[in-house]
Queue: 2 jobs
Job 1
Amino acid sequence: MSKSGSEPAPTKELVTAYLKEVKTKVDACIFDFLPDTHEQQDVHQLYQMMLDYPRREGKGLRPALCLLICEAFGGDAERAVNTAAALELLQNWLLIHDDIEDGSELRRGEPCLHQKHGIPMAINVGDALHCKMWEMLHRNTKILGHNLAFQILSEFIQLSNQVVEGQHIELSWVRNNQWNLNEKDYWTMCIQKTAWYTCITPCRVGAIIGGASTEEADAFIEIGKSLGIAFQIQDDVLNLIGDVGRYGKEIAGDISEGKRTLVLIHLFNSCTPPEAQYVIDIMAQPRADKTEADVLGVLKLMEKYNSIQYAQKCSKTLLKEAAEHFTQKFDHLPNNQAKHLFLSLINFFVEREY
Amino acid sequence: MSKSGSEPAPTKELVTAYLKEVKTKVDACIFDFLPDTHEQQDVHQLYQMMLDYPRREGKGLRPALCLLICEAFGGDAERAVNTAAALELLQNWLLIHDDIEDGSELRRGEPCLHQKHGIPMAINVGDALHCKMWEMLHRNTKILGHNLAFQILSEFIQLSNQVVEGQHIELSWVRNNQWNLNEKDYWTMCIQKTAWYTCITPCRVGAIIGGASTEEADAFIEIGKSLGIAFQIQDDVLNLIGDVGRYGKEIAGDISEGKRTLVLIHLFNSCTPPEAQYVIDIMAQPRADKTEADVLGVLKLMEKYNSIQYAQKCSKTLLKEAAEHFTQKFDHLPNNQAKHLFLSLINFFVEREY
């Protein structure tokens, strides 16, 4: 589908190759940085647990955004690798804690960390990786100098504040058994919980390292919001209709976990009151009490009202907005190759199947 | 008791007054820094949860160590207040996560955060405070300049690595149902889990801000180890024989939680094999299955073998070592008032009743 666009974008294969190239670089940085052996057996075990999620197959989208935008501004992507690796560490500690908070079962095709080692250890492993993220950012002094390193730290601080707020909003909905949500509620949560760390900050730090002005870096707030929501919607869709082997999480796990998604909000806005009550009764049950038939019942209603298609359409519209905004705003940027790759990469955000 | 020492130390009242003075300053810094209102109700609730532990009555020992040592080196304690406040934020996010990991019930006289709001939210509140700690340290640039601010960040990174390792060691013992521990195992865990963040780093950052040399700051590693273990042992003792109103946790909660303490290790080294088996059978049970009689049974054996007295003796010896080491090493320091107050303060570490 991406081939039919009017943009002179490289093919999907180029994006895949680029993602792979970035992943190799960033992984090397991470595995060189994280400790992996210790003479004391307990501590050795902690180090292995810290390596567990980073070793699982991730897509490396955030580092790719960071490096591409750095290059688009004419910067040396090598100088941004350490920061891109910190984005991956962020993602990993967030996922460990998020998986506990949501009571998830699978992550990247394997049992979640707390399923393997219990909640207490998993909380601590997440904390350990969280600390390592700041350590990695501290290393930027040597790579970028004091001023720039401090600026990047600021960006991560801003991002952290956003992500814990977004997370709290979502957890509140679960705890308060709140279902009367509108699309605006979803956007707000989604921007804070997902868009900041998935799109806004990766682009901003890439831009800053690449030499962008404050005003240029700020443009990525709006671009990243659209892109981040588009990404999250596609994630919600894949959760419902994806292939477990590629997607790596249990299919329809969001229904089991009672997650509020755009698909669900559309369903509530479309179905009859008795149907809505039926859905709420199922969604609000504890995970363990839900049967396969319950989950299928909700899925069927989502199909009946075309809620999944609606979400996919929204995702595509948001992506288009982000791409147009980027193209318009950064017409003057020197590196066309990186710019075009960026546009192809963000297409992948909504066309991906995993 | 402290009055009988040969040191010309100020009285206990002076220590209490000093702790209060520091707490006022550091609390002002924290409550000025942490957000407390937000127009969005969910986020407002998160902010209130983040303020919960900081608002509970803590002793403020770590900030006091930091400011006193800064002054002892002739530094301006006002420049160290922000860093001292970061030590308090550290303590608070650690406690929130630690309380979940240990399945604790009370903290500073009130139900633990996860008892009030559930584990998912409490994990996230801990993360939110953790992020705020780094933000607070980032502010040091304006107070201390880039170089010193980065040095203090380094200290917190080193400390964080220690504390998650120590925590993992302790959690491993629980998860592996491991009871054949010796005193050395306990020291190792205790140094990493407690001594670094309670004593070593507070003294080190105070010294660094006060202008100490690297060699002088390094001396606080050994001093802080002794002091930190002494502190932890007293904590273990108070947990068994303290007054719940003053101590703020459930009495003998460590037995309910199956904690490995020096008292327990001494008991295992002293009692008969059947008694040891009796103790293990009780300690290894899930908390909910333990009766009051079980807990009392273990307590009685600890009394029978003078295990609590043994631990108290150890704590006093360690304190004496720390005080001697400090006096000997820092004979040349200018600020005698701060030095003497430091010696009185560390006496309080083992003489405190809360």
Job 2
Amino acid sequence: MKYPVIAEHVKRYVSPKPKDIDLLQSFLNEVSMDKGTFLLQPGTHVRHEYFVVEGCLKAYYLDENGSSHIIQFAVEDWWIGDFDAYFNEIPSRLYIESIENSRLLSISYENLQILYEKSPVYERYFRLLITNAFISQRKRILSTLEKDTKARYLEFCTSYPNIENRVPNYDIANYLGVSPENLSRVRRSLKS
Amino acid sequence: MKYPVIAEHVKRYVSPKPKDIDLLQSFLNEVSMDKGTFLLQPGTHVRHEYFVVEGCLKAYYLDENGSSHIIQFAVEDWWIGDFDAYFNEIPSRLYIESIENSRLLSISYENLQILYEKSPVYERYFRLLITNAFISQRKRILSTLEKDTKARYLEFCTSYPNIENRVPNYDIANYLGVSPENLSRVRRSLKS
């Protein structure tokens, strides 16, 4: 098997038959990225979803004033892409940039549709993943409405285990919607 | 058929066989709610998801200071429930309250699992719905980060067509995270 890591991930959620795993494997392509390069930029026609084998990425967009807003990080075993652009057939508004040298597996949307048709076990796999993503995102909304910086940072560390030392402080602050100075103060207080 | 409205909704997303529709119908129960009553309150053990046949509801929670934060509205053809509480087997933190007299169809999570096993077409149906919900929620996060009240209100009117005259101004303001006075001003300016 070329890519055992993604097979393991699938088996954590559903019970694929060997032929289901073989079909998925046949649709995957390997993508290597150097730190600081882009997987996606605004205006791109979105054609793939990506599974992270190794590395760390961030998805963000720039507002009218040129300020960036991070909406997702992805590390090992996460999927990343731009659903909105794909489903609604509009150009992407997102940047997806690697924070570390990264290795990804890509699947085209055309092949994903074939996968759903031929191996319905992946309907369930992606239904469960997107449900988890929906729940995390809802927690983030609640968190923004309610919590102070410390509580939000601790929740971030739970949602993204071990990422807090891999992502720059200013990127985490941006994601949480707080100032980098404020976040640094909170992180120091947690260490002491 | 007892509940044609939900069958029509399913057919908008997937191609069920008559037996798939029959199975779903056999699992549904009708729920009537008077305006101002609760479908769910914090601490409840969540056992059902609900499809709105007629009416309007809001899902919200109270923070430590007793302030309410609305996270979702539901009108005809929307599903509402508390995924987080169900999937993670924790008590609900949400209130779900009817804003109008409402008629809903409920399905228990146990029956939903049977539905997935016996009629995999519903794996796809719910995958597509949750993907749409994920995209709307992401837009809401972007919107909160970026846009002013007017742009947010117009986006709200697009996401929830025709709901703007059914929900009190203060509930919409709460959902958008702006003051009711600010929203009233914006709405007046749009009418003139």
